[in-house]
Amino acid sequence: MKKICTVTLIGRPNVGKSSLLNKLINYDLSIISKHVQTTRDQIRGIYNDNQCQFIFLDTPGIHKGKNLLSEKLNQKSYQALEESDLVMFLFPANEEIGKGDKYILHRIKDAQVNNVIGIITKIDLIKNKDILEEKVNQLKELGFKRILGVGFEHDQTYKDVINEIKNYAYDGECLYEEDEFTDVPMRFIAKEIIRENALQYLYDELPHSIAVEITEFIESEKEQIPYNIQAILYVKKESQKGILIGKGAQMIKKISMNARQKMEKIFDHKVYLNVSVKVNENWVDDETKIKQMGY
What is the pLDDT of residues 164-216, one digit of tens each? Predict the structure, then answer.
């Protein structure tokens, strides 16, 4: 028996949801990027200590949809509200509260969520305390009674978030084992690592076109035998395939090498990774293809 709480992290794209999740569970689970549609899944991260187990739901950033995929991602974020004991609305210290933020708050209100706290992210980017105080007052005007700030240069702020969640926790049976940090399988993490590296190099050229499928993931208990991972990187147009492969296949080699190195670090095991490139015509606007891509 522990203190249990399910916490949804919600906000616009690039407000720091994935960064906060990774920090709280002390693991690089979610992709971190400055771009829209980086997080495409409702990813669960698990925090454990001697007294508590908290389940964090990292949601796709809510944004104005330009295609069917965008609409599906927004729906995933709204659905997470229904599973929550606590909702954390994230807002960056270095930005102004806009229509997008107010729309999300309206959806939270419609979901009749009882427990909502405001999290001002990226406070280490603001050196003027008056500016931070102004952000706090803006959130208070929007109805927040409890507001916290977090920043990479301030480790204590993340401990404060954990301590705050304890105020909303209740006695219950643990849903996960002590050593679990997520409920997603290793092949999902592998997929996200490949997509993260592709986005890192090609976001400007292929902003929302990239999807990854892991076609084979063979584990090995023997240290000297690497995991065998076969993957396909999809784009939505034939003209994008050459961009992803690159001259002399240099781009796909760079993506694959960096992804493999990160997998080996996270999995603590040698990895053999083979990534091929295919076209899935206009998959971002085809409901059947979106489901096939796992969204």
Answer: 999 999 999 998 888 888 887 888 889 989 988 888 888 666 656 788 999 99
User: In the numeric block, which tokens belong to residue 74?
Assistant: 């927004």
* 254 or 40, greater pLDDT: 254
Known binding-site positions = 11-18, 58-62, 121-124
Token pair 């698990």 is found at: 46
Mean pLDDT of the 264-285 span = 89
Phi, psi angles (nearest 5°) of residue 213: -125, 130
Tell me the per-residue pLDDT of 44-73, one tens digit each, with 9 for 90 and over. 889 999 999 999 988 776 656 666 666 666
Has residue 32 got a pLDDT over 70?
no
* Angstrom distances, CA of residue 75 to CA of 42, 79, 85: 10, 6, 19
The reported pTM is 0.76
What token pair was written down for 220? Answer: 């090995």
Rounded to the nearest integer, the mean pLDDT of the chain is: 85
> Is beta strand 211-218 parallel, antiparallel or unpaired with respect to 227-235?
antiparallel
Annotated binding residues for GTP, written as ranges, equal: 11-18, 58-62, 121-124
